[in-house]
Design a protein that fits this description.
With 131 residues, the protein is mainly beta. 8% of the residues lie in helices and 41% in strands. It has one domain: Sandwich (Immunoglobulin-like), CATH 2.60.40. It is built from 2 helices and 10 strands.
Length: 131
Amino acid sequence: MLAAALKGQIAVSSVGGDGSLKYVTSVQTAGVLDDLFFYPGKLGVIFPDRSRDDSLDANTCHGDEILLRVWAPTAQFVNVQLFGAAADIAPAKTSAMKEHNGVWSACVDDSWSNKYYLYDLRVYVPGNGPS
């Protein structure tokens, strides 16, 4: 429940005996995020290496698939967009990423090798709401 709450604004208030609001403030969550969502594994683009077993992989791929992984514990969703060339404006493909303990992962086929990609995500930013 706490992990879900950290994807939005958290505030603490003090209410008087008569029900009137006395004080309200937001909560600093940076240290909590690090403690709850610590991840010691690899992040970024991970090419298949069948010569070793990576037990830290929350999401492992099959065959020649490429694993994409990003740490974004406050993200509400993450997609990865594939572009064939650096100057392309529209993505050739988009793949939804799945979240596990603050780490978002997607397995993509080897056609993504040597291509350009961008992460498309929505995260909560204190003071700004979703962005």
